[in-house]
Every structure is written in structure tokens, then in C-alpha cells.
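We were asked to recover a plausible sequence for a given structure. The inputs and outputs are reproduced exactly as logged, with field labels preserved.

PROBLEM: sequence recovery
POSITIONS: 488
GIVEN STRUCTURE:
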């Protein structure tokens, strides 16, 4: 999703049309009562409302990275950060009161509510059927993305497949995970038609927006999470060949946001209000001036997503994902010397003097398609057929082909290892561990903990409840019908 002139043109209208929808599901007044019939009239009105739906996933994409990396063996929070949601995640000390869960719940449901209101209003409008199909297909992709986030984090959650009156929200219980996935799949099956609803000119200028390839990619991922490996294989096969892998220097280049590997992403600009939220996050705490950003004339870095040496050591010596994307540094901080490893994935070398960065947050890319397809093939007892897709990713990194003759279980483990290296700090690791089951999660974390960079992370406690995160306590207080996940 490109934060570009498309959003800037419609920003003023969005403030009018959507501010009431930025709800935490705590709002007293339902958006339908705020005079929207006077705003949802023309095609331009609905395109502005759609822009608001895209805008609402920005914070979600940021928090997905924190949730997917900090609890895992990939990253740690600097010892100088002593409290807050990142620390709670890193130390596995999170509870139902941890703020990021409330934010994540609210932001995803904001997207869902905006989409539902948009669909409700456009279907009752005089906008042409062709434009309606296009806008609804894009909106349903965003709703599916929101529900996919929610079901991976919390399990079953309340379903709102259409606009719901506020008086009814408090009486809707959590749906089963199967029911949530059913809505996700239905939405993505329709969203997969979106390219066909666009004119050739619209398709040529669709960069940054939901596409049929994005919908099929997320659909394949949803089928994998449902353990429907046969359908996942069929779905992902339709995406194979639709994109190509690019050089790592291109993939993470802030000035090439629509490169040939990226399928869907949040793209930022070096402008106030539009800069990357990760401008200092992956930089070691209080890094010296010029160490990371040559144009920033001050110390910088929060050290919230610093790379664990344990994972850095997993890369082969000549692996480009290490040599080109990881950096080691050592400098003095508050009277002691710290050694750190940081990633260049979110480092925009042209970050301006006031720390505004254009670094992307990637949500879907082609390397994920290749490894997911290999996963589906392996699960479908086609292990030998999975090799070429894994090797494409490895060869781009200079890691060479896998050895022949690996068993299904060995390839299962290879894929987990490959995904950890390929998607380091992209928000996947904790979910990849969870996807492989509680026993696998515990085994990987137990192997990591004695090697954690921070002493306090060497004695973390693992509980069965970690297979899901807790339902936010604030939501349960206002909606007592919501039951809590086991163990919280």
C-alpha cells in the first residue's frame, strides 16, 4: 500500500468520512448515526473511504512485526529499555493487560468496521456495478487481512461479516477458528478477482493496492494455517511464476517500493507524517552519530528489535542475508561497552536529518510464496518436488542447493530454519513456530534460551498458553461475553 498522492488527495475527506470509524469498539456512537449518507454518494467518496480502509492497516502492520519477532529467538529489546509492551513480549511476561494486544484488537477491528460500512453504503448507492465490484473486492482483501491477523494472534474472535449496530456488538461471542477462516477464505476468493474488475489503465496504476496475486498469496497462507494442504498447494501454484526474486539490495531499497518481488507492503516516504515507524527501532540503543544514518546529526536508536547473536550464527558464512543485511557494532553506552548485531532491512541510508525514513514494511513477497508452496508440497508427501522452490530462495542468498535425499520431517525442519533466516525481523518467526505446534515452539525456544544475549532472557518460562496470546482484558470488561484463552 503506497502512502502517496492517492492518500494525500483524499486526506481531508477521510477526516470527515472516517474519523468516527477509528473506534476501539468502545465508542458510544455508531458510525451509521453520524450523517454518512451525505458523504457516501459519488465514486470519489467511496474511493476516499477505501483509502481510509487502507490507512487503517498501517499501525497493524507495525505491531505484527513486534508480535512476530520479540517473543521469539530472533530479537531482543535493549537492556536500557525497562518497561512497555516490547519488553513484556521479549521477556515472555505479557498478560491480558499488555497494551499491544488492545491496540492490535482495536486496529484490526477498525479495518473491519470501515470495510463493513463501506460495503454497506456502496451497495445501496448509484455507483456503477463495475466500480462497486472493484472497490468491494479490494475492501474484502483488507477485511480478510484483518481477520487473519486476529485469528493467528487470539484464535477465535467475534465475526462481523456486515455492519453491526453498536447495541448488538456486546452480545456477539467469539466464533470458532474454523468460522473465522471460512470468512477469510470467502473474502479472499472474491478479492482474487479484483484484477479482472479493473480497466487496463487501472491495472497499470494499481501499485501498492490489493491485487489478485496478493489475495491468492494470503489465501494460500490461510489454507496452510487451516492445515488444508491440498488446497494450499493448488492455490499457491496459481501464484508461482507471477513474480520473481530480486537482489537483496533492490528488495529492501526504499526508493524501489514496487520491485518485482514485493506483492503487498506498506510503503513510507521521507515526509512528516509519512515516515517509517522503524526508523530507530532496529538501530542499537543510542548509536553514535553517523553509525547508521549519515544524514542524521545526532545519536539515534531505541534498540527494540536488535538481532540475537544466536540467530545470526545460523547463517552460513557466505550467506548474503548475513553479509549484506546484518551488521555488527560495538560502542560505549552509559559507562559500559555493548556489542550488537542489527539488520539493514529497515535502514534507509537517505533518511533525512530529522530522522524521516522511507523504509518499507513488507507484508507479502514472492519468497514467501516459494517457501509456502514447498511447505504444501512437503505436507502432501511430495518432498522431492519441494526442492526447486526452496533452492530458489537459497540460491538468491548464495547458500547453495539443499542436499538431496532429505526426509519429509527433515524438510519440515529445513523450511522452519530457512524461513527464520529469510524473514528475519519481518514479523513471521513466532507465528512460524506456533504454526508448527507447541512442541516445536518449546524445542526451538529451549535451544535458544541458554544462548540469549541478555542474561534475563536465559531463564524465560514457557507455558502451553503461549500457543495463543491473551484476549485484551479491556475488551472482556466491556463485553463479558468474550471468554479468555486458556491459561490467562
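RECOVERED SEQUENCE:
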Amino acid at each position: 500500500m503506497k502512502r502517496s498522492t492517492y492518500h494525500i488527495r483524499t486526506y481531508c475527506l477521510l477526516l470527515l468520512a472516517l474519523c468516527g470509524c477509528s473506534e476501539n469498539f468502545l465508542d458510544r456512537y455508531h458510525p451509521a448515526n453520524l450523517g454518512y449518507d451525505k458523504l457516501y454518494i459519488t465514486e470519489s467518496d467511496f474511493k476516499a473511504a477505501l483509502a481510509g480502509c487502507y490507512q487503517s492497516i498501517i499501525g497493524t502492520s507495525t505491531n505484527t512485526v513486534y508480535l512476530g519477532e520479540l517473543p521469539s529467538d530472533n530479537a531482543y529489546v535493549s537492556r536500557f529499555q525497562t518497561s512497555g509492551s516490547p519488553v513484556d513480549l521479549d521477556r515472555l511476561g505479557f498478560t491480558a493487560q499488555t497494551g499491544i494486544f488492545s491496540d492490535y484488537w482495536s486496529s484490526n477491528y477498525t479495518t473491519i468496521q470501515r470495510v463493513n460500512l463501506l460495503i454497506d453504503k456502496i451497495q445501496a448507492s448509484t455507483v456503477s456495478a463495475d466500480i462497486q465490484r472493484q472497490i468491494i473486492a479490494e475492501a474484502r482483501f483488507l477485511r480478510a487481512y484483518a481477520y487473519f491477523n486476529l485469528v493467528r494472534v487470539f484464535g477465535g474472535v467475534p465475526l462481523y461479516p456486515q455492519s453491526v449496530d453498536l447495541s448488538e456488538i456486546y452480545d456477539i461471542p467469539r466464533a470458532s477458528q474454523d468460522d473465522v477462516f471460512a470468512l477469510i477464505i470467502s473474502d479472499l476468493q472474491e478479492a482474487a478477482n479484483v484484477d479482472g474488475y479493473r480497466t487496463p489503465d487501472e491495472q497499470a496504476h494499481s501499485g501498492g493496492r490489493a491485487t489478485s496475486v496478493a489475495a491468492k498469496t494470503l489465501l494460500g497462507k490461510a489454507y496452510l494455517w487451516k492445515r488444508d494442504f491440498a488446497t494450499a498447494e493448488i492455490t499457491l501454484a496459481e501464484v508461482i511464476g507471477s513474480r520473481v526474486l530480486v537482489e537483496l539490495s533492490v528488495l529492501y531499497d526504499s526508493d524501489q517500493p514496487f520491485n518485482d518481488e514485493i506483492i503487498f507492503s506498506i510503503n513510507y516516504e521521507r515526509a512528516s507524517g509519512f515516515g517509517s515507524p522503524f526508523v530507530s527501532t532496529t538501530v542499537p540503543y543510542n548509536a553514535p552519530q553517523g553509525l547508521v544514518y549519515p544524514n542524521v546529526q545526532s545519536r539515534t536508536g531505541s534498540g527494540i528489535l536488535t538481532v540475537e547473536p544466536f540467530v545470526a550464527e545460523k547463517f552460513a558464512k557466505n550467506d548474503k542475508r548475513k553479509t549484506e543485511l546484518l551488521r555488527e557494532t560495538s560502542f560505549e553506552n552509559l559507562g559500559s561497552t555493548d556489542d550488537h548485531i542489527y539488520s539493514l532491512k529497515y535502514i534507509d541510508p537517505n533518511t533525512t536529518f530529522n530522522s524521516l525514513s522511507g523504509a518499507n514494511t513488507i507484508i507479502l513477497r514472492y519468497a514467501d510464496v516459494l517457501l509456502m508452496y514447498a511447505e504444501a508440497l512437503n505436507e502432501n508427501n511430495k518432498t522431492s518436488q519441494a526442492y526447486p522452490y526452496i533452492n530458489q530462495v537459497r540460491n538468491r542468498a548464495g547458500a547453495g542447493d539443499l542436499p538431496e535425499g532429505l526426509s519429509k520431517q527433515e524438510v519440515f525442519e529445513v523450511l522452519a530454519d530457512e524461513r527464520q533466516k529469510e524473514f528475519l525481523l519481518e514479523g513471521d518467526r513466532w507465528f512460524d513456530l506456533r504454526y508448527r505446534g507447541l512442541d516445536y515452539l518449546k524445542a526451538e525456544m529451549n535451544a535458544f534460551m541458554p544462548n540469549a544475549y541478555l542474561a534475563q532472557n536465559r531463564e524465560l518460562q514457557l507455558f502451553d498458553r503461549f500457543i495463543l496470546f491473551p484476549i485484551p482484558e479491556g475488551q472482556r470488561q466491556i463485553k463479558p461475553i468474550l471468554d479468555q484463552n486458556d491459561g490467562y
